[in-house]
Design a protein that fits this description.
Layout: E1 3-7, E2 10-13, E3 18-25, E4 32-39, E5 46-52, E6 58-60, E7 68-73, E8 78-83, E9 92-100, E10 107-108, E11 112-117
Parallel strand pairs: 2-11
Antiparallel strand pairs: 1-3, 3-8, 4-5, 4-9, 5-6, 7-8, 9-10, 9-11
């Protein structure tokens, strides 16, 4: 059973940075793609970034290109989301998710709150 545990959220001022972590366990993830999503109050959950575990191919939503970077540490089975130049509109609960490549995301973490103050 896949388990995903996020950490690293918090309160930061506009222009600040945070690094989110997602510790993955319960499976060999070489055939997986790992994603970050977010959900702001009153809004739908939206895609932020993703990385393939095997070859580190990355994907980003347009609104985070140039500001956020996704990476992974194979040895620690951990995926990171480095968030720079944060804006108040980045305020949301951020979720880590896992999917077999070619499938939908069906494994989710509990989420971590990111709040950016103006």
């Amino acid at each position: 059973q896949v388990q995903l545990v996020e950490s690293g959220g918090g309160l930061v001022q506009t222009g600040g940075s945070l690094r989110l972590s997602c510790a993955a366990s319960g499976r060999t993830f070489s055939s997986y793609i790992m994603g970050w999503f977010r959900q702001a109050p009153g809004k739908e959950r939206e895609f932020v970034a993703a990385i393939t575990w095997s070859d580190s191919k990355t994907y980003y939503a347009d609104f985070v290109k140039g500001r956020f970077a996704i990476s992974r540490d194979n040895a620690k089975n951990t995926v990171f989301l480095q968030m720079n130049s944060l804006k108040p509109e980045d305020t949301a609960v951020y979720y880590c998710a896992a999917a077999l490549r070619g499938s939908t995301y069906n494994n989710w973490g509990q989420g971590t709150q990111v709040t950016v103050s103006s």
